[in-house]
Amino acid sequence: MNYFPNIQKINYEGPKSANPYAFKYYNPDEKIGGKRMEDYLRFAVAYWHTFTEDLSDPFGAGTAVRPWDKFSGMDLAKARVEAAFEFFEKLGVPYFCFHDVDIAPEGNTLRETNQNLDTIVSMIKDYMKDSKTKLLWNTANNFTHPRFIHGAASSNNADVFAYAAAKVKKGLEIGKELGGENYVFWGGREGYETLLNTDMKFELDNLGRFFQMAVDYAREIDFDGQFLIEPKPKEPTTHQYDFDVASGYAFLQNYNLQDYFKFNIEANHATLAGHTFEHELHYARVNNILGSVDANQGHPLLGWDTDEFPTDLYSTTLAMYEIIKNGGLGRGGLNFDAKVRRGSFETEDLFHAHIAGMDSFAVGLKVAQKMLDDQVLENIISDRYQSYTKGIGLEIAEGKTDLGQLEDHALDLTDIKHQSGKLERIKATINQYLLTAYSDR
Predict the structure, then answer these.
(1) Which residues are catalytic?
(2) Each residue of 35-51: pLDDT tens digit?
C-alpha cells in the first residue's frame, strides 16, 4: 500500500527553489569540513512522533489524520512499518529511532508483548534489507503504563523494577538484532514527587544497579551499541534524577559507570532545565560524553515539553558549532524528537516539518564550519584569557604557585584593568555570518 501517494522523493533544489517538497539547504552529498553533509548530520526520524502521535494535548483530543489509523492492533503495527519505510525512502533519511511500544502493542502479559515485538521486529528487519535506513537507537518505554506510576528502576516496588529490567533486556536483544548503533535510557519517571515518602539514596542505588546489569547483559550478548542517557528535568516528576547533563554525569561517576555511557541531549529538555541547548552540548563535549542529539526546540512562552521541529537558525548554528568541535557525533545522530503542531494534522505536514528541520541544521552546519574556519569565537576567547599566558597568570594555569605567592602579588595591586566582554559585538558577528552565508547563491 502507498501511504504517501502524492509525495515523490525529496531532493535538493537549492535556496531559490519554491518547491515545498524540496530541500533548500540540505544537500546530502555536499562536503562540509571534508565530510558529506549526510554523514555529518546523520538525521533520524522518531517513530513515536511521526507514526504513532495523534496530536492530542492536555486540553483536547487528537487531530492527526493518518491513512494507517484505519487499522488496529497488530494490523496497525504492521501498517505503520510499511508507512515508515516509505517515509524514510522518500525523505532520504539514513536513520530512525523507536521505543518498544511504538512498534508493537502491549499484550496482557510481558510474554505476549514480547511475541508482538518479535513479529514486528522480524518485519522491520526484512524491510531494512532493501533500505538504506538503519537503526540509530531504540529504547524501552518504562513510563507510560500505570505500572510505572512510581517510576521504573527507581520504583519502590520490586516487581516493577523486575518488569522494567525485563523490557530493557528485550530492548538490548532487539538492538543487537536490528544493528542498532546506540541504546538510549530515558528515565521518564525516574525521580520523585516529595522526600516525605522517598528514600532517595536507595532509589539512586537501585538505578545504578539497573544500569550496571544492562552493561553486563550487553557484554554477555555481544551488543556493541553505545549506551546513552537522555536527561530531562521537571516532567513528569517534580524532581528528576536525570535533570541535566551535569547531574547525570555526577550519577555515572558515583556508580563507576562513566566509561560505559554518553549522553543523548535534547534541545527542549535543555531549556526546561534552565540551560541553553549549546550549554548542554558544550558541557558534554568538554567532558567527552557527547553521544547523540534529539533535535527539536521548545516554545519560549510555554513551560512544558512542546517538542517543536527546529527552525531557529541561531540555535542550530551554535549547536553545530559544538558538534563540529566534538569531531561529529560518532555513532550518534540528529534524531527529530519533534512533532508537528496540533493544527498541522495532514499527512503531508510530516514531510514539511522534517524538511524544515533538516534544512535548519544544514544551515547551522555550514555557518558553524565557516565560523570555525575563520576562528571567530576562538580568537575572542583566546584574547579574553590572555592574562593567563604570562606572569602570575601563567604560573596559576601551570599550577606553579600557592596562596602565599598569590597574596604577595595581590597586596600592592592598585589598578586592575578589565576588558569588555563585547557580547553585543559577538552576537552581531554571528548574525553577519548567518545573513551572508548564502548571499552568493
Answers:
(1) 99, 102
(2) 999 999 999 999 999 99
